[in-house]
Write a structure and sequence with these properties.
alpha+beta
Length: 213
């Protein structure tokens, strides 16, 4: 009967469609439960969490830095190459304190995400490591030079290098400028007031209006 043929045809098409869907689903990766997101492949977990990377300055003696890198490699499970890296500044300071105590001399700058930042470590052979901004390091060295003028040959080259670093990175380091304080402003105002010319009696007489009776 015509009706039975149409019914059989419709059932056949339905079965073919279900089979096709089943085959397509078998090729798809397992679905992620609702409410969760699978980001393992797209956003791999970052393993490197180190933030304090120190690189030698241009005039840092290469032989001294090699010794520092070798000491770093003994403490780390990966090579240091031309730089040494730490989880934070505190760990870096501890390491460089040890190196300074062993007589190492160094001058290195911190980098963060590949960019140089205003943080340095320095030791000029007196057994101590200094860490701070370029301005802080400069002030420390100047104070050391006042206390021990005999160390000028050791300290002065670093002071000269600090000027070079500041000049080569104007965006990172502000040029040396005299800071204007409140006291400076008051002194300037006082000088202006004292410098004002007071009119002489004759000038006052000339400037005074005369009245004719």
């Amino acid at each position: 009967m015509p009706g039975d043929e149409e019914k059989k045809k419709a059932n056949k098409e339905k079965e073919d469609l279900e089979a096709a869907n089943k085959d397509q689903n078998a090729k798809l990766p397992p679905s992620t439960p609702m409410g969760t997101t699978n980001t393992t492949k797209r956003f791999p977990k970052e393993e490197n969490t180190e933030t304090a990377v120190f690189v030698p300055t241009k005039r840092m003696p290469s032989e001294e830095w090699k010794l520092i890198v070798a000491a770093y490699n003994k403490l780390s499970n990966k090579p240091g190459n031309e730089e040494v890296s730490f989880a934070n500044d505190e760990d870096a300071k501890k390491f460089f304190d040890t190196q300074a105590g062993e007589g190492r001399v160094f001058f290195a700058q911190k980098h963060f995400k590949g960019e140089a930042v205003d943080k340095f470590v320095i030791a000029y052979g007196d057994g101590q490591c200094r860490m701070g901004s370029l301005e802080e390091i400069e002030n420390i060295l100047k104070e050391d030079l006042k206390k021990t003028p005999g160390d000028m040959d050791k300290i002065q080259p670093y002071l000269d290098q600090i000027k070079e670093i500041r000049a080569s990175s104007p965006k990172l380091f502000k040029p040396e400028e005299k800071q204007t304080t409140i006291a400076d402003t008051r002194a300037t105002m006082k000088e202006l007031r004292e410098g004002e010319k007071e009119p002489s009696p004759s000038e006052e007489k000339k400037s005074s209006p005369s009245f004719v009776k």
